[in-house]
């Protein structure tokens, strides 16, 4: 036996397993306050990697920065304790209220808030337990962005020379320091020639370097960094899950990017089948946001049984009532039909046309054709009514007798007349029931006959039969689609369907032109006693036409027909498989949107856990891809490969390609080096030696390079001393290999 | 709170406003103009650079801006990120297949503009 559609399940290519859930990470509350480290190291340079995401500080003769904290300040007032607090860096996350008033020194890549900057510097020197009075007696080396505007430096110089009385000071670009640290101490070496790709928090910089000296005039900045990536993912998720119960915060998005995103080694290729059911389970990442399970009150077995019984009982009662009502209606319709038939007979035997007209007008019927139409419609409804359940038709083997019905009223007393009226009613309903039964029987026979004929036809001409059935199925499906389309159109006010509906409403609303033909014929106004609107069931169809809701009964019937046809085809048509059924085609496994939103798992809207889940799939490669194709996120700039390629192809004599160096928070993406290598390989001349590598430690290496350099003679000749500052003006710097140019 | 005075809470320990800063210059006074947003900073720098004699070899904040891409732009589905071969005429959104087109058609008003704003292609009314 072929499978019935209800049991149809598309074959599971992958074993069903519980998916791995990843937590929705956020910045955690630190266990303790940021400690104060070591003691003051007199005269040792202090290196400050002042990034827009994190700040790293420490004495230059140490291995690693002693502190790394978020470049953030939070000043807030606790009303209850009646005092203000200033929290800096990681300490902000000790307190929930502090998180609400976070300020960053930066706006985009530039320093905009000098109050916050000063607080962070205060905090840095305090944590390094600087012991000198009335000034910090250590040389300072600090990072700044590529192409930092001079006014920024002016402010920073003023702050450091006048606020902290530092003896000497210099600035450099973080990624150049990192490159320096990773390539070893010998600067004249060819290993210090290359291209630095710095994927920072606010921007991505690409800087060619020759023998340790940054060639800034050829450097480029792409306005896309970790912060933009986070807000991009945040926006993507907000649109993907508009009803997600909690809001995804920027820091959560940052963690998601860090934990789950990767660079695709071949973006178009990987995308083309990213959302395929069979392979998706290895690619998706499900993020589970915290939620509280609603505890459902467990009901005992008895209670459940009782409830089920109650439900069954009330259902039965309702059915009975409905059957009774249908029967009553059927009886009434039969009587009506009888009346009209009699009228028809009278008309047939009427002597002249005038008489006919008089009779018809008396009934509010326009002409004989209308009468005929009423009759045939009534017949149709009655026949339909008979096929429905009109009460118990199994019992009453013996016809009950209604003795009083045939006796004229005159021969009966009052009591008997009442009884007779009752009996007449009973008899009418009994007769109706019998007729319904007969009709049902006939219908059954007819169906059996049809089925027999159908079978015969199939056996004789299978191809023709299949064609016919398929056409019919297609027609029905087209019908369903058409209805769906109509429903969709109705949701759009400007569509034709909506306008037609408005027209119907307007016609109904206006009194002068009745919407119903019959009403108009009778010349009926609202208070017209002859108004027969509503007497006929079909009159109400006008409301169906204007209501947006669909006719569920009709649809149900259509669905059943489709199902039956599909089952027949499944059974006899060798080319019609389970895959072709409507159910299989509507299956969620085939839905791109389902895969995109929920992955290869069935979605249960009732589940609290599932409604708190984010499914990361295409986003995992879409977000990092912006670095390669900024146009994805609407940034009208060339991508990393294009910029690097341009520098490489313009300077073929300089062996830049030997050392492509990745630095910065965004450089952590898996596959990043391979992708860059492969794409550059494709555009460079054959046999160009090409090597791409990543900083050994993406967060510390800039600081380490800075610290290392600050202990050399080169540093000592590059600093601006207090005397230089006083003599040359507040924006003055000495140019060196790691620093920006002095543009003034 | 009596216990707080014995062992200060974490937030009181962390409060930086009460920490002494002996390393600060005694004569240092904070100036008043302490905040400028990015836009103002960028305009200031533009004005400053415009007043200087032009020089090609010096990197400035603006000269290092990466140029627009010269490669043909690829198109991706605005909803899913998959290849976006088609474009909805009514919304201007790119889409992957007919199922997503239907979803676009049923979108709540305004959602299409939000999707477009992801790639700066939304209509901005002024």
TrEMBL record, chain A:
Taxonomic superkingdom: Eukaryota
A GO BP entry = DNA damage response
Residue spans with biased composition (Acidic residues)?
Answer: 525-537
Task: Tell me the GO molecular function terms.
Answer: enzyme regulator activity
Q: What is its main location?
A: nucleus
Q: Where in the cell is it found?
A: Nucleus
Q: Where is this region: Disordered?
A: 509-537
The keyword DNA damage appears for this protein: yes
User: Which InterPro entries does the record match to this protein?
Assistant: Actin, ATPase_NBD
Please list the coiled coil stretches.
Answer: 434-500
Is Transcription found in the keyword set? Answer: yes
One Pfam family matching this protein: Actin
Key words of the record: Coiled coil, DNA damage, Nucleus, Transcription, Transcription regulation
Q: Which GO terms describe its cellular component?
A: Ino80 complex
Similarity section: Belongs to the actin family.
Write down the PANTHER family for this protein, in alphabetical order.
Answer: ACTIN
Annotated protein name in UniProt? Arp5p
What species does this protein belong to?
Sugiyamaella lignohabitans
Q: Which gene encodes it?
A: ARP5
UniProtKB/TrEMBL annotation, chain B:
Highest taxon above the source species: Eukaryota
Start-end of Polar residues biased regions:
1-10
**Major location (coarse):** nucleus
Q: Which GO terms describe its cellular component?
A: Ino80 complex
Q: Where is this region: Disordered?
A: 1-31
Coiled-coil zones: none
Question: Which BP terms does GO give this entry?
Answer: CENP-A containing chromatin assembly; chromatin remodeling
UniProt domain Vps72/YL1 C-terminal: residue ranges: 75-104
Entry keyword set: Nucleus, Transcription, Transcription regulation
User: Where, per UniProt, does this protein localize?
Assistant: Nucleus
Q: What is this protein called?
A: Ies6p
Q: Which organism is it from?
A: Sugiyamaella lignohabitans
Q: What is the lineage of its organism?
A: Eukaryota, Fungi, Dikarya, Ascomycota, Saccharomycotina
């Amino acid at each position: 036996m072929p499978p019935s559609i209800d049991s149809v399940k598309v074959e599971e290519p992958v074993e069903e397993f519980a998916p791995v859930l990843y937590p929705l990470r956020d910045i955690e509350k630190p266990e303790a306050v940021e400690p104060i480290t070591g003691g003051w190291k007199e005269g040792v340079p202090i290196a400050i990697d002042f990034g827009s995401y994190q700040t790293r500080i420490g004495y230059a003769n140490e291995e690693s920065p002693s502190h790394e904290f978020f470049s953030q300040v939070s000043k807030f007032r606790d009303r209850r304790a009646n005092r203000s607090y200033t929290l800096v860096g990681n300490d902000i996350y000790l307190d929930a209220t502090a998180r609400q008033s976070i300020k960053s020194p930066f706006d985009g890549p530039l320093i905009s808030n000098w109050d916050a900057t000063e607080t962070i510097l205060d905090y840095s020197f305090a944590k390094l337990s600087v012991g000198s009075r009335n000034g910090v007696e250590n040389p300072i080396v600090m990072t700044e962005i590529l192409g930092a505007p001079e006014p920024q430096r002016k402010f920073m110089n003023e702050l450091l020379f006048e606020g902290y009385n530092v003896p000497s000071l210099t600035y450099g670009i973080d990624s150049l320091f990192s490159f320096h640290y990773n390539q070893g101490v010998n600067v004249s070496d060819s290993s210090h020639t290359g291209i630095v790709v710095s994927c920072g928090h606010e921007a991505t910089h690409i800087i060619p370097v020759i023998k340790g000296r940054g060639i800034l005039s050829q450097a480029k900045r792409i306005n896309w960094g970790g912060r933009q990536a986070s807000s991009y993912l945040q926006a993507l998720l907000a649109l993907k899950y508009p009803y997600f119960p909690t809001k995804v915060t920027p820091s959560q998005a940052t963690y998601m990017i860090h934990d789950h995103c990767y660079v695709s080694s071949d973006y178009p290729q990987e995308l083309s089948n990213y959302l395929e059911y069979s392979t998706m389970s290895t690619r998706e990442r499900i993020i589970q946001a915290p939620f509280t399970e609603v505890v459902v009150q467990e009901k005992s077995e008895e209670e459940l049984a009782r409830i089920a019984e109650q439900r069954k009982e009330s259902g039965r009662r309702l059915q009975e009532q409905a059957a009774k009502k249908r029967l009553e209606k059927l009886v009434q319709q039969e009587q009506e039909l009888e009346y009209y038939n009699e009228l028809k007979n009278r008309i047939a035997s009427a002597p002249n046309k005038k008489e006919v007209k008089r009779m018809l007008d008396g009934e509010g019927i326009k002409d004989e054709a209308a009468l005929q139409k009423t009759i045939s419609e009534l017949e149709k409804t009655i026949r339909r009514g008979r096929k429905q359940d009109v009460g118990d038709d199994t019992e009453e083997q013996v016809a009950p007798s209604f003795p009083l019905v045939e006796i004229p009223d005159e021969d009966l007393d009052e009591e008997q007349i009442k009884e007779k009226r009752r009996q007449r009613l009973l008899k009418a309903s009994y007769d109706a029931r019998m007729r319904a039964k007969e009709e049902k029987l006939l219908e059954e026979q007819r169906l059996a006959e049809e089925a027999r004929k159908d079978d015969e036809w199939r056996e004789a001409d299978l191809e023709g039969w299949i064609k016919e059935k398929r056409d019919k199925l297609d027609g029905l499906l087209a019908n369903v689609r058409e209805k769906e389309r109509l429903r969709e159109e109705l949701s759009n006010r400007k569509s034709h369907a909506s306008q037609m509906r408005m027209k119907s409403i307007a016609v109904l609303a206006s009194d002068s032109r009745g919407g119903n033909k019959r009403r108009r014929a009778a010349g009926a106004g609202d208070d017209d006693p002859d108004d027969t609107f509503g007497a006929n069931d079909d009159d109400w169809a006008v409301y169906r036409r204007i209501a947006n809701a669909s006719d569920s009964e009709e649809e149900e019937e259509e669905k059943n027909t489709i199902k039956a046809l599909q089952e027949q085809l499944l059974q006899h048509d060798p080319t019609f498989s389970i895959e072709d059924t409507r159910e299989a085609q509507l299956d969620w496994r085939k839905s791109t949107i389902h895969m995109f939103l929920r992955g290869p798992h069935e979605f249960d809207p009732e589940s609290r856990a599932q409604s708190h889940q984010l499914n990361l799939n295409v986003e995992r490669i879409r977000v990092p891809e912006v670095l390669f194709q900024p146009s994805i996120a609407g940034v009208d700039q060339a991508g990393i490969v294009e910029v690097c390629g341009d520098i490489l192809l313009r300077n073929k004599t300089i062996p830049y390609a030997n050392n492509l160096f990745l630095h910065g928070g965004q450089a952590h993406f898996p596959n990043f080096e391979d992708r860059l290598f492969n794409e550059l390989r494709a555009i460079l001349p054959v046999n160009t030696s090409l090597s791409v590598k990543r900083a050994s430690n993406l967060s510390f290496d800039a600081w380490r390079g800075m610290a290392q350099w600050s202990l050399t003679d080169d540093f000592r000749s590059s600093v601006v001393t207090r005397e230089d500052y006083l003599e040359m003006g507040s924006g003055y710097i000495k140019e060196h290999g790691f620093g920006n140019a002095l543009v003034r | 709170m009596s216990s707080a005075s014995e062992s200060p809470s974490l937030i009181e320990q962390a409060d930086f406003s009460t920490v002494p800063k002996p390393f600060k210059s005694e004569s240092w006074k904070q100036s008043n103009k302490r905040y400028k947003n990015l836009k103002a900073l960028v305009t200031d720098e533009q004005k400053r650079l415009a007043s200087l004699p032009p020089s090609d070899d010096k990197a400035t904040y603006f000269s290092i801006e990466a140029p627009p891409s010269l490669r043909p732009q690829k198109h991706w589905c605005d909803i899913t990120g998959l290849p976006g071969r088609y474009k909805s005429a009514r919304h201007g959104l790119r889409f992957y297949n007919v199922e997503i087109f239907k979803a676009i058609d049923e979108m709540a008003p305004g959602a299409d503009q939000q999707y477009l704003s992801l790639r700066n292609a939304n209509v901005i009314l002024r």
